[in-house]
Amino acid sequence: MKEESPKCTAAVIFGSNIRRLRKEKKLTQEKLAEVLGISTKHMGEIESGKSFISGELMDSIAEYFGVRFNELFSDEDIDEVLRIKAYRIASDMLRKTSEDFDKEYGIELHLK
After folding, report:
1. Is residue 32 part of a domain?
2. Along the chain (112 residues), what's the average pLDDT of each consecutive run of 10 residues?
3. Domain residues for 18?
4. pTM for this one?
5. Is residue 110 part of a domain?
6. ∠ at Cα 47 (45, 53), nearest 5°?
């Protein structure tokens, strides 16, 4: 199975989260743009990741939706990919003997 490549730019992740939050509140792009004092075109560009915003507008968005900044840049797809990779690495490490571990990672283990 081919692993899909996660979205990688901050603007795309940010825009996707704004779109999700807007839809959760059942708002149109027009209404959110009006609330934020920007054009509908600019709102569409933000949501599509084609345009980024000022810190002041970011403050307004976070306050309006009642979220922290890190939530605006969180990507569940990337988080899931990282969790899977971490699990695979941990599983691989647990299967190694202390000598294998030392050879691969340069760390000598003293297991009890």
Report:
1. yes
2. 50 89 95 96 93 88 90 72 68 69 67 56
3. 10-72
4. 0.61
5. no
6. 70
